[in-house]
């Protein structure tokens, strides 16, 4: 049963990165859009992510619940030593979620919109930045339960070059996912061209930040190179992700919207797979040799069984609805009223 | 402010904030479903406008509820890592099922809010009902997790280790049913009176009376039925608490001395030092009756509790008095309202009657907050009753006070923005819905 639970954990992290990430990315794209086009971008965005944004963010909650029910030791170590970045990420989530809804449901449209928009755009950057920082810190091996000063224990556990580089990489990936997604949603040629250019830009940013991650890893002594190139699965995944870049640029220029969406998702999945596989089952890499492994830190079997069944049952209930939700809003309604 | 106190305050603040949105998220979909149903049945466009106006309000509340809930699921670990490391696998079952309920709720809400004129009308209506049902389910599940903290079940402790874990038994602990029942009814009472009060105020201002009168009636009926049921379920809760948490019951009642034929103490100022209550009204034998069903039964007092494990009496007692006082007042208002409907009195046009509802509008939520203070403060100093002390559960990270100030600032400003938005929403009703059937253009 533990493998069922672990699969769901990986799946919800991946889906959060893909769907929630595209959602954050929409805000990032908005931030990097020139003033005169912003309201058009916003319009497209509201059509596409409005109906699904709630559902997209549920994946984070599922991941957290799986962690605290199934792997409580891991959850509590993260909560203690990554307290500060977690709080900042939460502030980002609060600000973003509320600003997004406020700006669309405020009955009066006036200068308050400027405030909502600004909060929305900035928090769309801060949240994935800190998500990335947290992800980077989990594997960087800088969390030190033996540390005796506040800075060592609660600040340098997450504030280092590697985690910041992962944070920037995450931001770029989100922006990339969103632009790719928006291309297919834009109704007019001119918007489609704009999003295609954005996608190219964001893709280059992601590749640059990816290089930065490797440099930072070398500086901070994180064995990233060994993880990624040291085993066949990770190596294949990385090569697949890199080679597909060529195909991606080709399809981008051809305007194949459906295909690039799949490809972008594939690339992100491969990156996650490459890093995740390399140190599975270790989830948190601690300072020194001791790591927190998923297999050794799981809850007792009765809990894992119950959790596994709850997840299986839940997905049987949820998946059909979820597909219908995404599908139902693909068709464009004649008069868009709500 | 020491770290433990800061952590407790931050937890209380976050939960106190979330519960308001949670109640609205659980209950408003049912109000909307009724209005929506009436529109589909009668074709009266006012009902359609009402459904839409409410759904815009709910979208605002829902987002705030969702983000504050997300914060909570991290806060449990950020503030109480030691608690979660042990309790997670035991009381996690409701949370894992709740994930499903939330998901269904979020999906159905997407359909409902964005589905106007896109889907079959009855399918669209049904998605609204699904939002409500899954909201209720998630409320019940999370309360059952809280009930486990009051009435731990489903594990044994051997040499300090938690063994023989049975998550299902933990979920169906002794307290889950009374707490979930009481909470569900409370959500209906609080939201019903809050919404009715707002619409009563608009009727008083003579604005869009047709619109607000229909809204008022739907909300008031839900609220009044719930308010009448509330004391019954509260009585069940009290009997239950007397049995499993005598310390909490004694603190609620400020019942310092174990005695037979115990009196019910109403009001008064508990004097924790001298173990007496000043200026209180005492009804002889009543507490024994409420707990045992006879006027002479023995009721354990705070003197039976080891001093180290005494809950704060004054706060618990005041909170309990506030809840029960409000409960009784709402019963009265509800009886008046049903009397009005029954006798077809024209009171609805009387200003004093509407003002009564305006007055009552914040009270339900006040009672909800007070009730949670009773439950949570009355459990102190335990985080898991009789098993783990709150002081042993708190995070080792220093400086939690700053985090508390930060969250206070955020929740206060968020509340202000929500109130501001709601005010604009209501102010715009005449503009948006005055003429018949005018679609809301964005
Ligand atoms: C509209 C709100 C409301 C109203 C009018 C009342 N309550 Fe209540 N009460 C709650 C809202 C609430 C609550 C917020 O929902 C609580 C907190 C925890 C819970 O399960 O319900 C609660 C808890 C709570 C508890 C503690 C349960 C526990 O710790 O397990 C008791 C004994 C009562 N209530 C009893 C009453 C009585 C005798 C009432 C008489 C009128 C009453 N309540 C009215
Ligand atoms: C008695 C207390 C609680 C009740 C009755 C309650 C109920 C609810 C309800 C009905 C919702 C739906 C959101 C809405 O409609 O606005 C919600 C949202 C949420 N709650 Fe709570 N909740 C409580 C406490 C908690 C706690 C302690 C946690 C964390 C562990 C939590 C986590 C969440 C999360 C993550 C969401 C967001 C889900 C979404 O996006 O729909 N809740 N809660
Ligand atoms: C939403 C309704 C709720 C409200 C308003 C509420 C209120 C409070 C308050 C006032 C405290 C502080 C008590 C004190 O330290 O003196 C507290 C503590 C706490 N509550 Fe609740 N509570 C709610 C529901 C829940 C639920 C559903 C859970 C978990 C499943 C929960 C878990 C906790 C924890 C872990 C603490 C901190 C430890 C403690 O003080 O015992 N609460 N809550």
Overview of the structural elements:
Chain A: This is Cytochrome bd-I ubiquinol oxidase subunit 2 apoprotein. Chain A: It is found in: Cell membrane. Chain A: The chain crosses the membrane at residues 6-32, 53-74, 80-99, 119-140, 160-183, 204-222, 228-252, 264-286, 306-327. The complex is a heterodimer of chains A (338) and B (442). With 338 residues, chain A is mostly helical. Chain A has one domain. Chain A is 78% helix and 2% strand. Chain A has 13 helices and 2 strands, in the order ααααααααααααββα. In chain A, a hairpin with a 5-residue loop joins β1 and β2. Chain A is globular and about 55 Å long. Chain B has 2 domains: 3-258 and 300-433, no CATH class; 259-299, no CATH class. Helices cover 72% and strands 6% of the residues of chain B. Chain B has 15 helices and 10 strands. Chain B has helices at 3-42, 45-79, 81-114, 121-150, 167-171, 176-204, 209-244, 246-253, 286-292, 313-343, 351-360, 363-377, 390-393, 400-427, 429-433; strands spanning 156-158, 161-163, 259-260, 264-266, 269-271, 276-278, 281-283, 298-299, 382-384, 388-389. Classes of the chains: A mainly alpha (338), B mainly alpha (442). Chains A and B meet through α3, α4, α5, α7 and α13 of A and α2, α3 and α14 of B.
What's the SSE pattern of chain B? HHHHEEHHHHEEEEEHEHHHEEHHH
| Helical segment count of chain B | 15
Give the DSSP E fraction of chain B (strand runs of 2 or more residues).
5-15%
Helix content percent band of chain A? over 70%
Q: What's the count of strands of chain A? A: 2
- What would the principal axes of the Cα set say about the shape of chain B? globular
Overall average pLDDT of chain A: 81
Quick one: how many beta strands of chain B?
10
Tell me the span between the first and last alpha carbons of chain B. Answer: 48 Å
Low-confidence stretches of chain A: 332-338
Structural class label of chain A: mainly alpha
